[in-house]
């Protein structure tokens, strides 16, 4: 059985979500990557609330440079918002994407700014 690209990604996403769970003290850092933009949220799965979010579309993010550089800036922005909310550690959810390129850059930017995962 040959899976399409979207079916394969959905299968990977479900496999990740089996083990990745966010609480109020350790929320889930969920990443969504489209062709042009990148979005990230801190989610408390117990209550189903989004605690903080950032994206490459935000006015506060300097969206100049390559997509990888912008993803790094988004990672730093979400780490700053997490610090303001009193969050230090998160559970990383790459959302079915491979851990390289923009997803890796976002994670490195969040770690540089002080998030632990």
TrEMBL record:
The keyword Kinase does not apply. Belongs to the universal ribosomal protein uL18 family. SUPFAM superfamilies: Translational machinery components (SSF53137). InterPro entries: Ribosomal_L18, Ribosomal_uL18_bac-type, Ribosomal_uL18_bac/plant/anim. PANTHER family: 39S RIBOSOMAL PROTEIN L18, MITOCHONDRIAL (PTHR12899), LARGE RIBOSOMAL SUBUNIT PROTEIN UL18M (PTHR12899:SF3). GO terms for cellular component: ribosome. The lineage of its organism: Bacteria, Pseudomonadati, Bacteroidota, Flavobacteriia, Flavobacteriales. Keywords: Ribonucleoprotein, Ribosomal protein, RNA-binding, rRNA-binding. Part of the 50S ribosomal subunit; part of the 5S rRNA/L5/L18/L25 subcomplex. Contacts the 5S and 23S rRNAs. It comes from Croceitalea rosinachiae. It comes from the Bacteria. This is Large ribosomal subunit protein uL18. The keyword Ribonucleoprotein applies. This is one of the proteins that bind and probably mediate the attachment of the 5S RNA into the large ribosomal subunit, where it forms part of the central protuberance.
